[in-house]
Amino acid sequence: MISVDEAFDHVRRLAAALPSERTPLAELLGLRLAESVASSVDSPPFDKSMVDGYAIDVSDASPTLRELELVTAGNVPTETVVHGATVRVMTGAPIPAGADAVVKWEDCELLAEGEIRNPARGVKSGSCIIRRGSSFHAGQVVLEAGKRLGPLDIALLAEIGQAEVGVIARPRVAVLPTGDELVAAHEPLGPGQIRNSNGPMLLAAVAAADCTPIDLGVGCDDPDDLRTRINQGLANDVLLVSGGVSAGVKDLVPGILTELGVEEQFHQVRIKPGKPLWFGVRHANGRRTLVFGLPGNPVSTFVSFQLFVLPALRALAGGPFESAVAQRAVLAMPFEHRGKRPTYHPCRQSAPAAGGVLHVEPLDWRGSSDLATLTRATHLAALPAGDYQLVPGDAVEVIAL
Ligand code: AMP
Ligand code: MG
Description:
Helices cover 18% and strands 30% of the residues. The chain is α+β, with helices and mostly antiparallel strands. A six-stranded mixed β-sheet has the order 7-4-6-5-9-8, with no helix packed on it. It has a six-stranded mixed β-sheet with strand order 16-13-17-20-19-18, with helices on both faces.
């Protein structure tokens, strides 16, 4: 059995960024730029009005101004603003030649149809005009390589006319829960059966990690069925199998993975929950597939995913490989730990966090199948192996969920 740190090292070594792919705007959310993006245009592309109003020449001393035309956004002026004249512009309209400021219509006085009192007095040249290139110029880098793209970045790419861009490919992650006892959420429970909670959990966790989940259905504890489904799963970047990786008579998964060419990197980690965790890699047809055999108990599956799978998915997507980021917290309640393995115990932040110090209360957790308690947890406390008593005020390391 290896330590958590050794297990991390195995995963880190094999979790390299995927190749880059030209990808359209609609599919970019959460992906990382493979290259820096320079704009091919000035932003904005022309001098434009910031308000609805009148475009004027501030040096014009005429008492009144005659409206030559109205220009709305998307149209272009045909008239030049000469002394004694103005062009009415709406927000976003290009500024007509001869004008060097726009005055909001609310600040103008309409004297007659098509005639206003000259509002130029005290108005500064350039007022209410957004100048061409005032945000950035053509040739300027607007997004740096490696950036994880959010809605604003996607908006900026659209603005500069970049309809597709090179990003690190979105990892495709196949999910295969296994077990003869599993039925779907919409099915009635027969004797000895339980519902498949890991499948929906893993599909959701994969999507939440900005990867593409691939649902392989539910596998039976039967070599032929597992072989078929695992083979399908191996056509992806990552395969997550849950269940069937311990030492029971129906725990067939490691044997079948090996038979299908997946090279075992480790099996069993000194950790609670999640000890039976299996990890391997297959290289075939120019593709590397990372395979995690996650212990079937839902809490074990979840904790193994958080600790080992999530960092791998981030690295595949071009991000840094970071083990779950640990924070220091202070225990708000006494807690007794017993056991030879480091334990990740669900706990809950006690409100409010006094003086910036995070206080946590260990939850009354009933073990690896107790999903309900985990849904109330905000953190996992990483408790070292051993038999000891912790008291309120003791420092513990926690991982935010
Ligand atoms: P296994 O790792 O296959 O020995 O399963 C360990 C425990 O987790 C057993 O009690 C299983 O019934 C349960 N289990 C396995 N797979 C799932 C699943 N997909 N959803 C909920 N519980 C599961
Ligand atoms: Mg099983």
